[in-house]
Amino acid sequence: MVGRVSFKLWLAFSAVLLYFAIWIDVLLRWRIHGQSFFQSIDVSMRLRADLALAFLFTLPVAGLLSLLISRRTRRNQRELIAFADRLASGDFSARIQVDDIAGAHDSADSLNAAAAALGRMHRALDTSRRELTALLDSMEEAVIAISPEGQVSWSNAVIEKISQYPVRRGRALVHTIRDPDVLSCVDEALQLREPVKGRATTVAAGRVFQVNVAPTPGGGAVVVLHDVTKIEQAEISRRDFVANVSHELRTPLTSISGYVETLIESHGLPEAEVKEFLSIILKNASRMNRLTEDLLALARVESKDYALTPQATRASDLVVDAIESLAPLATDAGLRLILGGTVDDQVMADPDAMQQVFGNLIENGLKYGKEGGRIIVGCKRVGENVEFSVQDFGPGIASHHLSRIFERFYRVDTARSRESGGTGLGLAIVKRVLEAHGGDVWVESEIAQGTTFLFRLPAMPINAVMHEDDQESGAAKEESSPSFIGNRET
After folding, report:
1. What is the 3-state secondary structure (H, E, C) of the chain?
2. pLDDT-based confidence at 70, cuts 50/70/90?
3. How far is 437 from 158, CA to CA, in rounded Å?
4. Phi, psi for residue 156 in degrees, rounded to 5
5. CA torsion, ordered 340, 345, 350, 356, to nearest 10 deg
6. Which pLDDT tens digit goes with each residue over 208-255?
7. 74-127 confidence digits (pLDDT tens)
8. Model confidence pLDDT, tens digit, residues 183-221
9. Cβ contacts of residue 490 below 8 Å, gap of 6+?
10. Does domain 311-467 bear CATH number 3.30.565.10?
11. What is the rounded (10 degree) CA torsion for 99, 103, 105, 106?
12. For residue 484, pLDDT beyond 70
């Protein structure tokens, strides 16, 4: 192609020179028009010979000039091709430098300015893309973009965590999400070009998602999966709680209403029968009162505003105080409270809250472990924690109940619990109080061998305990040391 251009340039230069030679010949002939015929012929012949020599001399000059111009044009062409290739590969820092042939510098400046503008636009778009990616990755919702053909074109980090299958861009959505409800919502949104909502339960095991699919201007769609598992669990828990409370209140209220109506409508009832009816009414009223108190206690410990006043306390003191305060209740029930092994390690605990914990656990043992005749309460050091235990020797608890025994209103023996006045909230309160202390609680039991409730609290480090003891001893010395006013002892 370059050789063809050089040949054309050479022909053009030659034609221009020949054109000028013809015109010079015409002018010379016109000027010698008045001379004699033979003189004009002789002069004309000489001039034509000179012109022919000049023309022959200009031919190589024209060829040389055309070769130089073609080489510079070819170099400019290579520069332009290399510049275009770099732009196509995404290198917007590319710049072009050409020889100044027919305004080539102006064209190069325009192309360089365009490349700089494209570079700025590309950087701005890349920054926006990275910001959008970071924003979508920080969302709690899973987001996945679908092309008009139903293929995955983009996804955030959340979808890669919850999906049971790898996210494959450029592949059909079914390779990533196989939940039929999600796929149905996507198909409907792509066809109708309208937002579609749904509910999915098999995207991830044990989790429920709200599905929102919105069409995009390019013909595709965006799928957003919002995890509503906790919301649905909270709603189920709320409904169960209301149902349980209603049931627990309905039974004593029905009993109270029935006996009161009997007393009102009946006349001349024997005094013993009236006392029996009144004792039943009082029993049910007390049951309602305990239920109300337990509900208030549970609401308090589950509240975000629930605050403890922890202080350094010896584990043995907590156990001894619990036994001493509940000993009369055990005696009335015909059981013995026995102090087991203890340790003097200190824990940070709210004494009142811990008395509530021990009270619920020991009362639970008094109700269900009466056949064993005794309840042992103790504590021991286990690793970095102090482990407390309340052990009874009653009938025990079947293994299938152990995982649910700390749920609200859950009862192992419903009839026996109601007979003994239990509300089914005590163990739930124990669990919440211990969690607020940074501890945990569990139960171990064997049929016909008894049940042991165990909980642990973090033990205070030795240096912290020594610091507390130093402060206490310092305060004691300050209280016992005499004070002086002037020279008199007071």
Report:
1. CHHHHHHHHHHHHHHHHHHHHHHHHHHHHHHCCCCCHHHHHHHHHHHHHHHHHHHHHHHHHHHHHHHHHHHHHHHHHHHHHHHHHHHHCCCCCCCCCCCCCCCHHHHHHHHHHHHHHHHHHHHHHHHHHHHHHHHHHCCCCEEEEECCCCEEEEECHHHHHHCCCCCCCCCEHHHCCCCHHHHHHHHHHHHHCCCEEEEECCCCCCCCEEEEEEECCCCCEEEEEEECHHHHHHHHHHHHHHHHHHHHHHHHHHHHHHHHHHHHHCCCCCHHHHHHHHHHHHHHHHHHHHHHHHHHHHHHHHCCCCCCCCEEEEHHHHHHHHHHHHHHHHHHCCCEEEECCCCCCEEEECHHHHHHHHHHHHHHHHHHCHHHCEEEEEEEEECCEEEEEEEECCCCCCHHHHCCCCCCCCCCCHHHHHHCCCCCCHHHHHHHHHHHCCCEEEEEEECCCEEEEEEEEEECCHHHHHHHHHHHHHHHHHHHCCCEECCEEC
2. low
3. 33
4. -95, 180
5. -10
6. 999 999 998 888 998 889 888 888 888 887 787 778 778 778 888 888
7. 776 777 777 777 777 777 777 776 655 545 666 777 777 777 777 777 777 666
8. 899 999 998 899 999 999 888 888 899 999 999 888 899
9. 482, 483, 484
10. yes
11. -170
12. no
Would you give the end-to-end CA distance of the chain in angstroms?
121
**The CATH number of 139-227 is which of 3.30.450.20, 2.60.40.1930, 2.10.109.10, 3.40.50.2020?**
3.30.450.20
- Residue 466 and residue 122: Cα distance in Å, rounded? 65
Q: Specify the CATH architecture of the domain 232-302.
A: Orthogonal Bundle (1.10)
- Say if residue 74 is exposed, middle or buried (CB neighbours under 10 Å; 0-12, 13-18, 19+): middle
The CA-based angle 406-409-414, given to 5 degrees, is 105
Angle between helical axes of 271-302 and 426-436 (0-180°, round to 10): 30
Domain limits, the chain: 1-138, 139-227, 232-302, 311-467
Two structure tokens written together for 414? 């419903």
Q: How many whole angstroms separate alpha carbon 24 and alpha carbon 257?
A: 138
By C-alpha distance, which of 307, 316, 309 is closest to 358? 316
In single-letter form, the type of residue at position 188 comes to: E
Note the pLDDT of residue 388: 96
